[in-house]
Amino acid sequence: MTASALLLAELTTRARVTAHSATSTCVCGTSTLADRPDATVVRHADTVAKAHAPATPPAELTARLTTAARLPGILLPPLTPTPANLHGRLVTFWPYGAPVDPENPDAAPWEEAAVLLARLHRTPAAPDLPPMRGPAKAAQAVDRLRAAPPHVATDPVLRAWAALPAWARAEVPMPDTRTLCHGDLHLGQLVRHPAPDGPWRLIDVDDLGTGVPAWDLARPAAWYACGLLPPDEWTRFLDAYRAAGGPAVPQDGDPWPALDVPARALTVQTAARALAKALTAGRPLDEVEQSLIDACARMGSAPPELTGTFAK
Known about the structure:
Elements: H1 3-22, E1 30-36, E2 39-44, E3 47-51, H2 58-70, E4 84-86, E5 89-95, E6 98-99, H3 110-121, H4 134-147, H5 154-162, E7 180-181, E8 190-192, E9 200-202, E10 209-210, H6 215-225, H7 231-243, H8 256-281, H9 287-300
Antiparallel strand pairs: 1-2, 2-3, 3-5, 4-5, 6-8, 7-10, 8-9
Helix pairs in contact: 3-7, 4-8, 5-8, 5-9, 6-7, 6-8, 8-9
């Protein structure tokens, strides 16, 4: 049995044991929700067990779990306050929440996500919380692209990356070291708890920390700028964030001076990931992937100091 298969089997056992310890009426059933090098996630009944990325620092993950536990109205709280160790991987346990339905995009909870973000950004961060990992993850995506087979589309992505300020490339600390941020906001990071129709909560604390709050708005902003998110959905998200008092952008007027650099960085990250996967698989780029490459090419011709040019 491979190490990955052994981890998956034992994680499944841990999830089942944890679920059965919480109730005497467990409706048994196990499923694998994710099995990637950086995360393995297993569900048994109403319990979810997650093996975090190798080499995850225990103190940092524990600080993130503590934050989730003290903010149950914003973040899904863990079942246990400290991670366990399984084959050298840190493991955490969570209640199951119903995810966003990918087959029903019209029901995407943009307003709910925005309000949760605004509340998170307004919450004081604990002093031991590490920096949010958004820029570091973007840098990892670019490193993977550099290691992939050469391709003509790689150059505009790397040029757009090089044009970003050093903090967005994780080369120096972020200019904001006090605001509590999610670090990797997208619709897959929301669940209803209790399932199936409880209130929405944010999940996945791996990137939680202090930093520039506009980073949490950057993925939908980048999708909008690239033509992948309809303007009305972007407006709903932005308006709800502002109405909830979110501090990442001004309460009125042009939001792009605050969003431009993070949105560029998320575009590069997404393009780098997509291109690296396509090159590794030896397949051509699809329409969405090509639109991301095209956006990077536009970004390379207009530096971030010219705020607003990326979004137009």
